[in-house]
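Why do we care about 3D structure at all? Because function follows from shape, and shape follows, mostly, from sequence. That is the central idea of this module. The next example makes it concrete: a single protein chain, its amino acid sequence, and then its structure expressed as tokens.
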Amino acid sequence: MSAESRHQEILQLLGQKGTLSIAELGERFEVSDMTIRRDLTVLASEGLLVRTRGGAAASASGSFEPPFVLRERTNAGAKQQIAAAAAAQVIDGQTVLLDGGTTGLAIAEALLGRNLTVCALNVRVAQVLAADSSMRVMVPGGTIRPGEFSVVGPEALAMVSSFRFDVYLMTASGLSVDAGVTEWNTDDAAVKRAALDASRRTVLVADARKFGAEAFVRVCPISRVDRLVTDAGLADEHRRELAATGTELVVA
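And the structure:
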């Protein structure tokens, strides 16, 4: 296993467990303690974890939004797969609303080369799409959230609400049958609700790691989503729960 693959798995494990020891990581990856120490030092230098005596801890508690750079490196392979599956849900010529975040960025890259009108709710996403001359890109007015680069505020809500889009490719920070679709930030959640109301169909795109997780703000119940795209890592328990909601499931 490459160092990059180990780093991604370490971050995934920290997200699940909160703390890890050098000994358990060494045993898991079948490498020396010195190799694990180097891995943890690299990740700590990027602010992705906190070194502890004999191991590491997650860099933030579950009550706070993880930084973009951490999310970008977590479950990256699965996000590429589900991004391709999400792009397949869109028909050329359609009008599309597209979220931001790391999954939204992967979807934007998967949509390149398509004849679409896309309203990007994130500046990073807009930059990716605008490089493609076949794409018509819309960006709402409003305030840009530092670090995330999502567009929020009354102006963004008003612009989104003044159109009727064919499909909304929606991302989420957390997803559970009880809490529904959840987000870390109240402003982002408000824009998502406006996007839901402005779209004929909503496709939720989330990697399996987000199932069972709950972020700070409730956006909508799962039943509000028409189709859900995820990866093969989705547990059987969650598949059964989702089937009861009536939302169609697509596994990449």
